[in-house]
Give the backbone structure.
Amino acid sequence: MEGCGSHSVRDYDARVAENVRLTERIFWMTFEAPELARAAKAGQCLMVFAPDGAKLLGRPFEAADADGARGVISVCYMLAGEGTEMLSRVKAGETLKIRGFIGVPYPEGRGAIAAGGGVGAAGFILARKTGAASELYVGMPGRGCEDFAAKIKEICPDARIFTDDGSFGEGDSMFKVLPRDTGGRDVWCCGPIGFLNAMKRHYAENPQNLYFSLDKRMACGYGGCMGCVVKTSGGLKRVCADQSLFRADEVDLNDY
Ligand SMILES: Cc1cc2nc3c(=O)[nH]c(=O)nc-3n(C[C@H](O)[C@H](O)[C@H](O)COP(=O)(O)OP(=O)(O)OC[C@H]3O[C@@H](n4cnc5c(N)ncnc54)[C@H](O)[C@@H]3O)c2cc1C
Ligand code: FES
């Protein structure tokens, strides 16, 4: 299947190598998918179809890790509703339909700072691992998130973890240390709306450097349905085919 962008989109039947719970609501799922694992770029997503695929559209998740040598690719997902509930019950050894790649890779070589709120950090883990991002900041609630933090550190040992309750990590807020002066570097962020608004306030002086990775609801995943359109000051953009990062001052979060 050819996608709208320059990349091709294909469906695969992939064996689940692991599906482990990292927090009460966050899971880590790894697929055996050598072709995808070798080609993975940070910012791209996989569409994962729940076992009862006839009933449900695929659910998009960012590629959170990829190991071309081992032929495995992982997503980090949070329980949201029916589809992710079904995914959470999948056992290692089962086969799921996955579609990849969806979305536009993050630009490389800009030394960007990446900041994620909770599971919003998923795609930035791969971005830091591949060097697309030069620094990674992650905020999470705290107690109960130890395995999530450990997974991030296992892949990106220099990731900086902050916890709302201060129970572990480097402190209770990344905003105390996130450099306001980025020396012209981009700041990419992804997470709940409250987190994106806090980033906007933090970078109020230089909004031109701040970019949002928006999890807009998707249907087809390859540019055909217009289901993922975001209104920007430059017109309507599809998250799956046109753009992965949106300048903070080109989108209206109230509309999102
Ligand atoms: C490009 C992209 C990347 C994403 N990456 C991740 C990720 O790495 N980890 C992660 O946990 N989540 C990610 N999401 C969000 C994830 O796709 C949804 O949480 C998931 O599809 C919800 O499915 P559900 O059946 O459990 O929920 P539903 O019962 O369908 O809905 C529960 C909630 O999720 C929202 N939702 C449902 N389907 C989608 C969808 N396709 N896209 C966005 N929101 C949706 C609904 O509006 C509702 O608020 C991403 C979304 C997009 C578009
Ligand atoms: S999900 Fe169909 S156009 Fe983007």
User: Anything to note?
Assistant: The chain has five helices and 14 strands. The chain has a mean pLDDT of 92. Residues 45, 59-62, 75-78, 80-84, 103, 119, 122, 215-218, 239 surround flavin-adenine dinucleotide (ligand 1) (CB under 6 Å).
